[in-house]
Fold this sequence. Notes:
The structure holds two protein chains of two kinds.
Chain A: E1 2-13, E2 16-28, E3 33-37, H1 44-52, E4 59-64, E5 67-68, E6 76-79, H2 91-95, H3 97-101, H4 106-119, H5 135-148, E7 153-157, H6 165-182, E8 185-190, H7 193-199, E9 202-206, E10 213-218, H8 233-247
Helix pairs in contact in A: 4-5, 7-8
Chain B: H1 3-28, H2 40-52, H3 56-87, H4 89-103, H5 111-118, H6 122-146, H7 150-158, H8 163-200, H9 206-215, H10 219-247
Amino acid sequence: MLEITNISKTYDNDGKRTEAVKDFSLSLNEHKFIGLVGPSGCGKTTLLKIIAGLIPASSGHVILDGQKILSPGKDRGLVFQQFTLFPWLTVKENISFGLDLQKLESKKKTEIVNHYLGVTGLQDFAEFYPKDLSGGMQQRVAIARTLANNPKILLMDEPFGSLDSQTRSQMQELLTKLWETEHKTILFITHDVGEAAFLADVVYVLSKRPMEIKNKFDVPFARPRIRTLKNTKEFFEFENKIAQELEI
Amino acid sequence: MNKHASEYIALSFLSFLIVLGVWWFVTSVGLIADFFLPSPSAVVEATVRLFSQGNFISDIGISLFRILIGFGVAAILAVPLGILIGLNRRAEALIEPVVDFIRYTPIPAFIPLFILWFGIGELEKIVVIGVSVFFQLVLMVSNSVSLTPRDIIDSARTLGATHWHILTKVVYPYSKPRIFDDLRVSMGWAWAGLLIAEIVGSTSGIGFVIIQSQRLLQTGNVIGAIIIVGILGLTIDLIFKLLYKMFFPWAPKIRHHA
């Protein structure tokens, strides 16, 4: 459904050219949870922003369901690492931001908003402003806001990178649960190997700049996945295998 | 109120008390002649006399009216223009250099010209106040608008926002508290413009009372009127701060150093 073909991105900084991404190709199937693992600064975020349509590629193209991507659109939801909620809107209003733009019928809107307040466990915080929420809760709102818009694909750029480790693992569990019920196509970027192994169906290991695919791993663990999976020997061995690939 | 806040208030009162104490001391031991600096009690008496005799209250009224109109007109013009400059690089290139040039030229330099063009009536006062506020405010607003985080705008774009949505549903609401605070800060410029205009050429207003009292060697009235200006300014500032809290419960606390 998503075809990334020969994407390159070159930045020009005061005459110094940096190649962030070079001839990158990848093809994704529908309803899969894809993890991309790569070292910090390898160009993962650049790739995601190109798919989102926020920045243009220097060459190559991305096609989603037969449509060439030229600009941002609500068919590609993006969750950032930084907290990007709209501070002047309550949790409820943040979640319905995209729906408000579509001028959806208000009964339908309330239904969708309430659904996502429910699945992210935010019912009791519907009227809160972002500044009164913890980082983990803010990211839950950001995920709910993106899902409420019903994108074809959900792009996630280290969404739990700014959270403490306990919150992080809670959020991972929440996201797997969400995925197991909603079956969205998700492209998830992280530099945390364990996170990718726990969440994804397929993990791609990326190289340093210019970014290339080094290897692909099919994740062997059955769903539903729960936190204790991370304590098993199999998980530990699988995680190690990916980590070794990453270090080479 | 927490301990920190009450300490803050106590300290601000203390600073007033110190000034008052020094003032009282130098006048009571006769270090400075009454003519140059009357004692605090003499100033209080003079101020009370100002209020009970003559037209001081209507002078305050006319000054407040001029501020309201001059500041209001400047704000209505400056806020949209500031937003435009803050968002659009072409508009910035086109407008900002001119605005900067005028902004760095002290307003008193324009007053003879304005009197020549508009006389010494209400229009001239309002123009002086308006010009004092407008050029400062345009740049403050444009700066405030440009502080909208890229990631928030990008988030909105991936949620399906058009350019118009970005302006009306993201940048404007995000910047509103800052713009409101810009208005508060630029109110100070309105008072400066008002006083200059009233001192240089006027037959009414607080500035007129000040220059008139100086001509009649009534130093107590001069100081009394200045203190009234200070109290009015502080009150308006406080009203702005209270409205800020009321309008923007979601926003970070007001900036302190402005």
